[in-house]
Design goal:
The chain is mostly beta strands and about 290 residues long. The chain has one domain. Helix content is about 5%, strand content about 45%. The protein is built from 1 helix and 19 strands. The strands form 3 sheets. Strands 4, 5, 6, 7, 10, 12, 13, 14 and 15 form a 9-stranded mixed β-sheet that branches. Strands 1, 2, 3, 8, 9, 11, 17 and 18 form an 8-stranded mixed β-sheet that branches. A two-stranded antiparallel sheet has the order 16-19. A hairpin with a 4-residue loop joins β8 and β9. The longest helix is centred in the first third of the chain and has 10 residues. The two termini are about 15 Å apart.
């Protein structure tokens, strides 16, 4: 059971979604540890928004499932249908996963071994709040949303909400010297820009250069798709694995690799550095 427990733990890192833009951005170009800033090749720079690696990302997990086919998604009047899924983790109070590149995590909760089979999808029930910690150097001076100005920037200890009609403006701090970052906690109540029409669904494909895809759903307190930003209570996530997870009677262990290389979104907002969330991925192999 301990070996299978690690399978369940790794699943908790594959369901994080871009908050500010429902389409996956390009990876930031980083030269000698400095993040690109400029209009040349803008898709891979902060100028138009790009994704890079956070130092630490925290998410709260309630339930995890492995599925032999894709579940039927929730609607505004119904919950997700998990007929072809097996629950593998449960914590009704929520278990906090602190995720960093290449690091194993431990979730407190109840684990259940899945039946033997080939699992093509995973499904997660999560809180819609996320903790982000990061600091780095940028190729051009920027203003922090919270305070300061300079080429060194990072997350500030604080919290904010991204919703239809408004977003946080206090996630970053910048200065002339290296920044000691704090943990910024985001509450997600909208996919896409705050100026966009309300969207309770986001889809991201080809995660970190693989064939994996993820779909995020903002749901209300009944588990139905939220009809507006004020109804959002939790986040649910569906992942289509790049490679199926095959469990057999001979399976004794799970090897795993975290890929959080695009787990944070950076964008220049009128000279100020906006820091938001991006997609994570976990690669699993049953042995």
């Amino acid at each position: 059971m301990n070996n299978f427990k690690y399978l369940f733990l790794i699943l908790s890192t594959i369901f994080i979604f871009e908050m500010f833009n429902s389409n996956r951005a390009e990876a930031c170009t980083i030269n000698s540890g400095v993040v690109k800033h400029g209009t040349t090749g803008a898709d891979d720079s902060i100028e138009d928004g790009c994704d890079t690696t956070p130092s630490l990302y925290e998410v709260v997990i309630y339930k995890l499932y492995l599925c032999t086919s894709s579940p039927t998604e929730a609607t505004t009047t119904s919950t997700v249908v998990l007929t072809y899924c097996s629950q593998i983790f449960d914590n009704s109070s929520g278990a906090t996963a602190s995720v960093s590149q290449g690091q194993e995590i431990v979730l407190d909760g109840t684990y259940t071994r899945p039946p033997n089979g080939t699992y093509t999808h995973g499904y997660a029930f999560m809180d819609n709040t996320f903790g982000i910690t990061w600091a780095g150097e940028i190729a051009a001076s920027m203003d922090g949303m919270s305070s300061g100005s300079g080429v060194f920037c990072g997350t500030v200890a604080g919290s904010g909400t991204h919703s239809k009609g408004s977003t946080h403006s206090n996630s970053s701090v910048c200065g002339a010297n290296a920044i000691t970052p704090g943990k910024f906690v985001e509450t997600l109540a909208q996919f896409g820009a705050s100026s966009d029409a309300f969207s309770s669904k986001a889809f991201v494909e080809n995660i970190n250069g693989t064939t994996a895809s993820i779909t995020g759903y903002l749901v209300d307190s009944n588990g139905h798709r939220a009809a507006n930003t004020g109804e959002v209570d939790k986040l649910e996530g569906l992942v289509a694995f790049a490679n199926p997870v095959v469990i057999t009677s001979d399976t004794t262990s799970i090897s795993m690799t975290f890929n959080v290389g695009e787990g944070m979104h950076l964008v220049d907002e009128s000279g100020e550095l906006y820091i938001g969330s991006g997609p994570f991925q976990a690669i699993m192999t049953a042995n």
